[in-house]
Design goal:
By secondary structure, the protein is α/β, with parallel strands linked by helices. The chain has helices at residues 3-14, 58-68, 87-96, 116-119, 133-140, 144-155, 176-181, 203-219, 229-239, 310-313, 318-326, 330-353, 356-362, 365-373; strands at residues 22-28, 73-79, 101-106, 122-129, 162-169, 188-193, 260-263, 268-270, 284-285, 290-291. It has a domain at 22-160 and 259-293: TIM Barrel (Alpha-Beta Barrel), CATH 3.20.20. Helix 8 runs parallel beside helix 12 (330-353) and helix 11 packs across helix 12.
Amino acid sequence: MNSHLEHRAAAAERAGVIPGSRVELQLLTTLKCNLKCSYCSLGVGEVLGSQLQVGYDLDQLERFVATQLPAKEIYVTFYGGEPTLNGDFIAAVMQRLPLFRYQLQTNGTLLDKLPGAVLERLSNILVSIDGGERITDGYRGRGIYRRVLKNIRKVRERVGGSVTARVTWSDADTSFAELDELTENFDYVYFQFVADEKYADDSQAKRQAVLAQLIDRFFASSDAIYPFIPLMGIVRNKILPSRATELYGGMTQCRASSHLLNVMPDGKIFPCPDMMYLPDMQQGDVAGNWLKPSALLPHPDMPCDDCEALPWCRRNCMKNLYLGYVKKDEQYRRNVVEPICELIRFMGREIDRHAPHQWFARLSLPLRRQLTDCEVYEYVEVMP
Ligand code: SF4
Ligand code: SF4
């Protein structure tokens, strides 16, 4: 670790291992998956498929929580691989730790196999989808889109909380219409720009055109919130900038620098689920019962301090910034990180064009609350 990182880590240690009062335990129930999505980030470093069973027991998990996270408000996201392939573990954790809040991130193909007792406890389900039928089936396999939507309709009544589409925006030809259509089947839509070399030629212009349409649609009405989390979050941050920092110790809203603990099936803990192949990133262990601050922290070589978007973006994705500016992967920086930052700044300017403060002033109190306090912000990266 260089001296800057040591300094940051020491500062974080003084502030407590986890800044703030909340912790998200992202429990990976298995690294096995029943689909083969072409862009899966767990494919890097051959993480996918490497651990099929959970290697710690619930006594160890309880002990870890009691010793490392006393007095914290804890919420759990079940993650994988495909977490529903280990539904018994999900049910057992919920039964053992009934005071926690729970979320599930799933590809949706096995949702209908989950028992009602699990579904009713879920505050939110993030269902991975890639856009419309053509694009989703292209990445995930024929028939997946329809199967997932059918499953959602089947379980919807029994889910305790919200159901959110989690879109990895990979294809430059993803249209406004197919993203908009997701609002018919989901309570919220969250999208994230793919961390892959998909930004060449006219693909930036195509994405910008769709973003402009989404933002126009967002501000077209003050009678309802257009439920796209990254738009809601950016608008919220522009109106109430402190919301972009308060849960994260002033660091990234993706939680990887502050309070996101990814627990691999073997119990090892990492701040970012896409970097579990880097031993230097390990920050704890459930069975060994230890925890230290995240090593994925802001660094002086990252460009954010001079960026117009910092007050509301807050360093979108630390993995991208780390690979592009600390590890100096020039190709990744040029072809992935910079184009995504360009899209983020574009979104900020488009939102400003619509006078967000005046729009907010017209909202009813319940709609204001939905925009400022939507629970889904806690479960996702907020920024795209
Ligand atoms: S847009 Fe990029 S450079 Fe600007 S604050 Fe966000 S992550 Fe940092
Ligand atoms: S947004 Fe955060 S958690 Fe997601 S890949 Fe980037 S650093 Fe990791």
